[in-house]
Write a structure and sequence with these properties.
The complex is a heterodimer of chains A (about 110) and B (about 300). Chain A contains 4 helices and 7 strands. Chain A has about 110 residues and is an alpha+beta fold. Classes of the chains: A alpha+beta (about 110), B mainly beta (about 300).
Chain lengths: ~110, ~300
């Protein structure tokens, strides 16, 4: 049994007991997207899964190698989409895109 | 190139990996487990279960509803069938009597060939407060996608409605008394960081020889106190803080050590309505009024 010691919020911060880190995205609970490859012979195949953890951080669960090639030709949309995020899978966004060779020639959409 | 959406107003959800989150009648914005960590079973989306769809129902919030409690979770799901290559903006919006109060908007890139399709799901909750729901009203949740560029990936607005009565007064207390904790009758009362007075209705334990108003943390890390009737009461729930951001971001589980055991305070993390304290194991615990969010 431990008697409580009531401390004020400022003291809790001074002691390092709280970071005062507020919920980062208003009242939204992020989201997730899955991409499925159609399969006439059986269940559709899961190609990739994005989890938007906050509006600044994205997690990419899977990426099919063919999918990387596909993204390459859609610079306009893909860059606009990615501009929202600072990190992907915890890696700086620009490094992630560079490491996965996702930025290529400047093509119009379609 | 089919496009469609689904919409629910929910009391809670359960992920396919077993994480459960209740929103209805809980403290504001408690830490959320990995709801989107489930399998790729897309027949029912990412949730193994959606608890109680409240669309087109009426609710009387009488008795035990206080400002700082969540009311419901708006859940949106969008389906795009390739070939589609476009950028859009997702709008998820709560309204009270037609006026927007709470929204979550973001860009969505749909980039699918003819051989694939994509499904996106996200949620936004709302609760009882002066800046959210603060009066008897018709509350609606709306989702839609508007087109920005490329192929048209827009999806028309869809709306769910809930009618509320007996919505409690949402006036806030003075900031000078934030963090106050006391025993009121047989309940543990406190002023949280959102400046709302909350009361924890404890479970009756035993009849002790003790002083009414005493408060302590037991060896299982629950809050206990002695009520005005001299009986011991125990808080109905507590949880060891398992993350530091609302969406379970980088682990930052505060464990300052047993030397801090017993410290109790209100902080501004999450929804600013919980109590924080250090248990005898040196970990930080959260407790509060309302229902347990993780049942």
């Amino acid at each position: 049994m431990i008697p409580v010691k009531i401390i004020m919020p400022e003291e809790a911060k001074a002691k390092g007991l709280t970071s005062d880190k507020k919920m980062p995205i208003g009242d939204g609970i992020a989201g997730a997207m899955v991409v499925m490859k159609k399969n006439k012979e059986g269940p559709d195949e899961l190609v990739e899964k994005y989890v938007m953890k906050t509006n600044k951080e994205m997690e990419l669960k899977f990426m099919h190698k063919d999918r990387v090639k596909y993204l390459k030709r859609n610079k306009g949309n893909f860059e606009k989409y990615m501009n929202q995020f600072k990190t992907i899978n915890g890696v700086d966004k620009d490094k992630f895109i560079k490491n996965n060779n996702l930025i290529v020639e400047d093509k119009d959409i379609k | 190139m089919a496009k469609s959406s689904c919409l629910w107003i929910l009391q809670g959800v359960c992920s396919t990996s077993g994480n459960i989150m209740r929103m209805y009648h809980t403290n504001f914005n408690m830490p959320v487990p990995l709801l989107f960590n489930g399998s790729g079973d897309c027949t029912s989306g990412f949730m193994a279960a959606r608890y109680v769809d409240m669309c087109d129902t009426s609710h009387a919030l009488a008795g035990t509803w206080y400002p700082g409690y969540e009311f419901a979770l708006g859940d949106s799901m969008y389906l795009h069938d390739g070939p589609l290559n476009g950028l859009g903006c997702v709008y998820q919006l709560w309204k009270v009597d037609g006026s927007p109060i709470n929204s979550f908007n973001f860009q969505l890139c749909i980039d699918q060939g003819a051989d694939s399709w994509a499904m996106y799901e996200s949620m936004v909750n709302t609760g009882i407060a002066g800046w959210e729901i603060d009066s008897n009203s018709t509350v609606t949740f709306q989702n839609q996608i508007t087109s920005i560029s490329g192929d048209d990936i827009s999806i028309a607005a869809k709306t769910g409605t809930v009618i509320l009565s007996n919505v409690p007064n949402t006036a806030q207390c003075s900031s000078t008394i934030t963090g106050s904790i006391w025993v009121e009758g047989n309940e543990l009362a406190y002023i949280n960081s959102a400046r709302f007075k909350h009361k924890i209705l404890g479970y009756y334990q035993i009849t002790p020889a003790g002083t009414p108003g005493s408060i302590w943390i037991d060896n299982t890390h629950y809050l206990n106190w002695i009520g005005a009737d001299t009986n011991v009461y125990k808080a109905p729930w507590r949880i060891c803080q398992f993350c530091s951001s609302f969406t379970n971001g980088a682990p930052d589980n505060p464990s300052p050590g047993a030397g801090y055991a017993g410290n109790i305070w209100v902080d501004n993390q999450f929804g600013c309505t919980h109590l924080s304290y250090i248990g005898c194991d040196g970990n930080k615990y959260l407790a509060g009024a309302g229902l347990y969010p993780y049942t």
